[in-house]
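In practice, a research group might receive sequence data for several interacting partners and want a quick structural hypothesis before committing to experiments. The following worked case mirrors that situation: the sequences arrive first, and a predicted assembly follows.
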Amino acid sequence: MNELTAAAVIDWLTALSKVYNEKKDYLTDLDRAIGDADHGANMARGFTVVAEKISPLADKDIGTIFKTVAMTLISTVGGASGPLYGSFFLQAAGVTNGKTGLNAGEAGTMLEAGLKGVVARGKAAVGDKTMIDAMTPAVAAFQAAAGEGLSSAADKARQAARAGADSTTPLVAKKGRASYLGERSAGHLDPGSESTALLFQTLYDIVVK
Amino acid sequence: MVGLVLVSHSRPLAEATLTLVRAMTGPELPIAIAAGAGANHEDLGTDAVEISEAIQSVAGADGVVVLMDMGSAVLSAEMALDFLDESLKTKVKLCPSSFVEGAVAAGVIAKVGGRLEDVLHEASVSLAQKTEHISPDEAAVQPKAVTDISKHENAKALRVIVPNPSGLHARPVAKLIQEAAKFSSEIQIRNLTNGKGPVSVRSMTGIVALEALRGHEVELSAAGEDADAALENLRVAIKTGLGDSLHETARNAANVENPEPLREGEGQGKPIGVCKGVVIGSVYYPQAVSFELPTGPARDANHELGLLRSALQATMQILRRKAEEISRSMGRERGEIFVAQTMVLSDPALMEQAEQLIRKENCQAAQAWWQTAEGVIQTYRNLNDDNLRQRAEDLKDVARLVLTQLGVSVSDKLEIPRSGIMVVNELTPGQVAGLDKDKVLGVICLEDGRTSHSSILLRSRGIPAIVQAKHFTPSLLHLELPMVLAMDGETGEIWINPDMKELKKIHERQIRWTEQVSLEKRDSIKPAVTLDGRSFEIFANVGRVEDAEDAANNGADGIGLLRTEFMFLHRDSAPTEQEQVEELHRILKPMAGKPAIIRTLDAGGDKELSYLNMPKEANPYLGVRAIRLCLRNKELFQEQLRAILRVSAEYDVRVMFPMIAALQELKEAKAELQKAHETLTAKNIKHRWPIPTGMMMEVPSAAIVSHYFAPEIDFASIGTNDLTQYTLAVDRGNPELQELLNKELNPAVLALINRVVLSCKSREIPVAVCGEAAASPASASVFLGLGVSELSMSGRSIPAMKHWVRSQSLSEMEMEARNLMQQRLPYMVK
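A structural hypothesis for the assembly, expressed as tokens:
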């Protein structure tokens, strides 16, 4: 796949709905260790509605699809990941308005805008044990490999996201519910970074399908 | 008014917080909640879209403060701001403080009209007093530092002691801030006892942090135009408790010492009878009905819309809560009634129509709402379907609830359509006072207690009543109407739909009760006879028609003192003879058939008559007053005497002269009476003659030589007020000397009374006491013991006095009085 079409975007998000529902208990378990045990349920709830809302949007531009995703997540997820992923897609929508397909470079720009949205909303930095730890290296890897094509960029991105997520395990949380645990949050994988890793893994799966 | 939005992960938490805030602010403040995630907001979570809608629903010209709990609440709230118009966004502030404390503080300041910055600031520092309390050294956030204004050159200050049993805690502080908000001056308060402060009197957290406990002295200082008024107003407000009962501690202590005996089952709240009476009747649930809608156009349509939206939201919450409560306690089916009511409210057509009225016709929220609701109610009523007609009643109920949420005071006067038993949740004293006794045969309160003011009032109004009936099963509040109920206000028994056998028994009980009541009623008419058989006449002091009616209703044996001053005061000319006859006739009529002693005009002293050109006197009480005045204005005197004689043709009237100091005055007054008699006789006007004639014994010079006066009179009446004043040389208007007048029967005064009684007794002339002291059993016992034969007092005091007399023995009173006469010290009577 050389272009991330609107249909592919819908596939990506629909697949994510399936993934988050499958991984619901896993994400919740991660969250139970250092948070309020709702991340899996929240993501599953949000993306289930996302999948319903976007299925009739195949003929729309990607900006419209992302905007619908953003608003849906914002009002259905419930937890902090709602406004955070909501911001991701809202900003992503901002750079994809009117577009029905994205080449690798454009996709990189889209991801970067999303990342900036999350950072602006959550005010977290790399090392704070949040989804940013997975998202930042993933977006950077995607953009670095954009010249190699969409599939390669998505591949590098999912690996970077995975590594980033894993890197959160020894960290002490500085943001979110887990930060109340302080030192005790170390030794656990951050559930937000895990859902981000899943997001990039699924993107890759769709691109290479 | 600044609006508030409460954002929480948890719907119940947000609703409970709303209740806490409303407890401090009442219903007017626009508050919306945005809480919970998932379909019914049942999951924990927040929703930025809901938050932004909530903000818009309460947004007025003054802006909105958003309170959040944690985590996603903050992120979602921030996100919600992004959804707002730029113009609104600048007027919405997110509060960084803790949720509950911040919400309460923000609510209080918003309610008193605080600006957006004030509300935000107070909410932001609302944790300070808790922090200060728990770890004073680590208090992280301090209330806004203020420049001590007491040092300003124009500043005024005063001090006041905190009387509240629990000190200045949140509730009275909120009241204080509300009072202070009425003034423009800068006002500060400091605690002189512990040295804390000063803080602005507009700062809730600041004042609470003063830790002003009961007995602490606080200083209020103010600078500004209305500083004096502000300080005085706040001083009075603090002194009177700022809405707190100042006797809480005392009352609690009394309860501990005197616990109510608990009968079996009473621990779970057995109904308690508080006012005797057996009643059988239909049950009615009264509805508070009347209200006054605000008038005039709205100033800002958006503001009014916001008010209406939050009122609707608040009403829905109330109904939902009710639904849950009722479902839990009485089953889902009953709970559904309230769910149905919320559905009536959420009909979008209602809001649309109200919105049109607000936008197009400039209506205020309450006007628009009621107009809309009334229209819909009427439409429902006109339908043929019973179910839909029932919805009209539902809508009427909830529409009123919305009105109260909009700050319209719906009058709480309780009315029932026909005579029967009224079942209410609780009653305010005002509601008891407003009850129509002809319709309300009995009252059952689910709440309230034996000693509540309402219970006391019910007793004093003689309405059979039972309280604390909330645990009675089946619940009395949800009986299928119509339903017959019987109650015994003495035993607290309640019967629902009693069968014939029960009814017969209750009816017998009812007959016994009515007999007892009429017996007591008859009793008050009966003479007051002591245990040892001596009968005393208890008379009434009367000045106006109402007094005479009171006298008649309370079993007065006659009018012991008919004051005629009221006919002469506050007018430009003296009343004519005919006017006096008519007025006397009106006053005498309620007591017709009983003796009435009419005292001739006792003007002068403190009662001035403009039309007599009375000269200013240095010592009016020692000047031309009463009989002295009449003997100098003989025309006036003649008119009054003729009027009195003329009514004597129809009523058992006697004449009494006031303030006789010398025998010559009495003789002169009697000569005038003789002259009036002759005038009437010449004109052939019927009157009683000879007419019994007496005098007031109120000047010591007369009392001391009362035996000179006795042969000239048919009766004497002792005015203890004046007699004491003249004997002790104490001006009764002088506040410094009231102790001498009010609390003591001075031995000299007693000696004079004794002398009067002795002088009169030998000639079998009755002696009455008509001063205030006559109504007090303690002094009355002395008077009767000394030989006084009549007491005269306000009509309402008579039943108690008669009851008391019947419990006394004259021989004991005589002995007591004799002992007392030996004492040289004042006799404390109160």
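Before designing any experiment, note the following. The domain at 4-208 of chain A is CATH 1.25.40.340 (Serine Threonine Protein Phosphatase 5, Tetratricopeptide repeat). The interface with chain B takes residues 36, 38, 41-42, 45, 71, 74-84, 86-87, 121-122, 176-177 of chain A (CB under 8 Å).
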